[in-house]
Amino acid sequence: MFNKILIANRGEIACRVIKTARRMGVATVAVYSEADANARHVRLADEAVLIGPAPVRESYLLADRILEAAKRTGAQAVHPGYGFLSENEDFAEACEAAGIAFIGPPASAIRAMGSKSAAKALMEKAGVPLTPGYHGDNQDPSFLAAQAERIGYPVLIKASAGGGGKGMRRVDHAADFEAALASCQREATNAFGDDHVLVEKYVLKPRHIEIQVFGDKRGDCVYLFERDCSVQRRHQKVLEEAPAPGMTPDRRAAMGKAAVDAAKAVGYVGAGTVEFIANQDGSFYFMEMNTRLQVEHPVTEMITGLDLVEWQLRVASGERLPLRQEQLSIDGHALEARIYAEDPDRGFLPSTGRLVHLAPPPESDHVRVDTGVEQGDEITPHYDPMIAKLIVWGADRRQALSRMRQALAQYRVVGVQNNVEFLSRLVAVPSFADANLDTGLIEREQALLFPETGEVPADVWLLTALAELLREQRLAQKAATSAPDEASPWRLLDGWRLNGSAQRQLALRLGEVVQDVGVAVVRGGWELTLGDQRIFARGTLGADSELMAQLGERRLRAAVVATGERRQVFFEGRSWPLAMVDRLHVGGAGEEAEGGLRAPMPGKVIALIAQPGATVERGAPLLVLEAMKMEHTIAAPRKGVVKAFRFAPGDQVADGSELVEFERAE
Q1: What is the pTM of this model?
Q2: 3-state DSSP: the chain helix, strand, coil percent, rounded to 5?
Q3: Which of 299, 477, 453 is nearest to 389 (CA)?
């Protein structure tokens, strides 16, 4: 077994590897960019080495700097995590040439399976069923368009290298093919340094099922059952579960055998995943093989009781697989939800900023949180905006679903837009709860997943007001205890007045709605007035913003996090971004100017689509912004004239930068 390993990655996977290595008595070395100088994986590792500036091409993708760090620190092996250089055959070869073990498959296996096109050719030769499509080397746009016509729309354009939904587009009409192809190629180049794509028939209502395989250096290989990853947005997984609902033993054995055969065909070593597109009738097609550990591997660990990172370290050091196929079994059901800094209501646009408040649910034997960040850390535009992976286990799917709902209701994030509330709706939607799964579930359930904003419940206004009063009381008590005269009447906070009790108004706001809550001090608490409702209120507010409240005869639990004027309220599995209103403050008047369109986040301008001076309709694409390794199209908010662009392709833009001078057309 190794004495010291280097983790050539960041975020939650680096933290995950460090945790397992520490349990096994293996020392760890972290590498980090300037943007990650204070990152959690750096704080956890035994040693850490700076490898460059924030952009991945100047840090995490520089194999020579990573190998130099390994040699300098005496690391015997490199764990690549997932993403970055994890599926780079040149990096694997460079590790071996330097006498440093690569904790993953041999370079030959990565090369064989790293290209989706080459992998499909290999599987075709082995007799594994493939989705109809074109997987060859001819990348001429007109030729690919002709192939799409031959295959028949809808088709899927997919980057041959990499994964994570990047460089992938569904195209329903021939008129859209050229633009989609160009976008895929740009995104693939930026993410993987390779613009090669393939074109496949888009299977309607498909399920995405993958098989976890594991091989050792002696040629033995097993499969650790399957995961259903059908619930996706923009071809990127949102929820994963194991085992796959409705999977029969015969189908599991057939898919498992196909996956093991595929792994053995390339001499596979270590953890890998063979992914299949499955029809509702049970038939399946080989899609690709990921020659690395997957983001969703924890659900496999939860149902098998195994640590796949430990298996990786043991196999890479030359040990046999810890278990044979007949010794593996499934226990219960597991679900994983990816907690992202993104705004589901704005097309899942990534969000950046400081995690002002971060409170995950408590971990236990059946609740696990894998994360690379802590409260106070920054979500930057340089890397994937994942906050954490939330994994739950249950004796069956129903219990796992119940635990996931409860855990999401306890998850609290303030400082960035996030998808926690969206995930809560997603796991509760009937089609998911009933396991009616396919990759189009989110699009199909738009009405339930993106409901119109309703009125704020009365309890939310009252709980926010109560929390504010308790916070004021705590601050006043703290100030009073420092007063020199302990007998001073100013230490009393009972609201006493000569001719009656103290009364006041608290003003709260959500968007354009401002709500007044009347406050009167009474014995043991306050009387709150909301509209025609008057109610007695008292409670306690913990240092972690947890509120235990009594409203009338009811006892309620909530959390109210204060940051500046904002009061983020978490109650009954939902959250509301309220704000305190200062009635004495007089703001400016007038309407907001309509002169330009601003960048929703920091990024780089990739392409200008509209022509300056052109009149465009609402929704027309104006330019493409690349951020967090994904492309985002900025569209016209209404019919208007594109007067001028403020930036050229290749320019970096800051959050809020004016991108386009846009004038409303009559």
Answers
A1: 0.81
A2: 30, 35, 40
A3: 299
Q: If DSSP states are collapsed to H, E and C, what string results for 242-282?
A: ECCCCCCHHHHHHHHHHHHHHHHHCCCCEEEEEEEEECCCC
Q: CA–CA separation, 483 vs 256, rounded Å?
A: 73
**Angstrom distances, CA of residue 517 to CA of 554, 576, 581:** 19, 17, 11
Report the 3 state secondary structure along 562-607.
Answer: EECCEEEEEECCEEEEEEECCCCCCCCCCCCCCCEEECCCCEEEEE
Q: What is the pLDDT of residue 176?
A: 95
- Report how far apart, in Å, the C-alpha atoms of 172 and of each of 4, 175, 184, 438 are: 51, 9, 15, 18
Task: Quote the pLDDT of residue 496.
Answer: 52
Helix extents (H) in 319-434: 397-410, 420-428, 430-433
Q: Closest by alpha carbon to 344, among 420, 230, 231, 428? A: 420
Phi-psi category of residue 656: left, alpha or beta, with phi > 0 → left and psi -120 to 50 → alpha: left
Residues of the chain under the 70 pLDDT cut:
162-164, 482-501, 583-596, 628-630, 666
CA-only gyration radius of the chain, Å: 28
User: What does the pLDDT read at residue 594?
Assistant: 45
Selecting from 3.30.450.40, 3.40.50.300, 3.50.50.60, 2.40.50.100, what CATH number does the domain 596-664 have?
2.40.50.100
Length of the chain: 666
CB 567 within 8 A of CB 497: no
Residue 403 contacts by C-beta under 8 Å, 6 or more apart in sequence? 366, 367, 392, 393, 394
Q: Which two tokens stand for residue 8?
A: 């050539």
The pLDDT value recorded for residue 592 is 37
Segments making up each domain of the chain, as ranges: 4-103, 132-201, 204-322, 332-452, 458-477+499-580, 596-664
Distances (CA, A) of 276 to 66, 76, 221, 258: 33, 35, 19, 10
**Rounded to an integer, what distance in angstroms lies between the CA atom of residue 414 and that of residue 357?**
5
Cα–Cα distance measured from residue 396 to residue 561, given in angstroms and rounded to the nearest whole number? 35
**How far from each other are the two terminal CA atoms of the chain, in whole angstroms?**
73
Token duo for residue 172? 């329903």
332-452: CATH topology: D-amino Acid Aminotransferase; Chain A, domain 1 (3.30.470)
CATH topology for the 204-322 domain: D-amino Acid Aminotransferase; Chain A, domain 1 (3.30.470)
Which CA distances in Å does 301 have to 225, 226, 333, 492, 590?
Answer: 11, 11, 11, 57, 58
Residue 207 known to be catalytic: no
**Which H or E run contains 239?**
strand 239-242
Token output for 316: 């890479």
Pairing of strands 232-233, 236-237: antiparallel
The one catalytic residue in 207, 227, 292, 567 is 292
d(CA 442, CA 451): 13
Residues 6+ positions from 336 with CB-CB distance below 8 Å: 239, 240, 241, 296, 298, 299, 389, 390, 391
Summarised one tens digit per residue, pLDDT across range 424-478 is 999 999 999 999 999 999 999 999 999 988 889 999 999 999 999 999 998 888 7
State the SS3 of 155-202: EEEEECCCCCCCCEEEECCHHHHHHHHHHHHHHHHHHHCCCCEEEEEC
Cis check: omega of the bond before 154, within 30 degrees of 0: yes
- What string of H, E and C letters represents the secondary structure of 297-326? HHHHHHHHCCCHHHHHHHHHCCCCCCCCHH
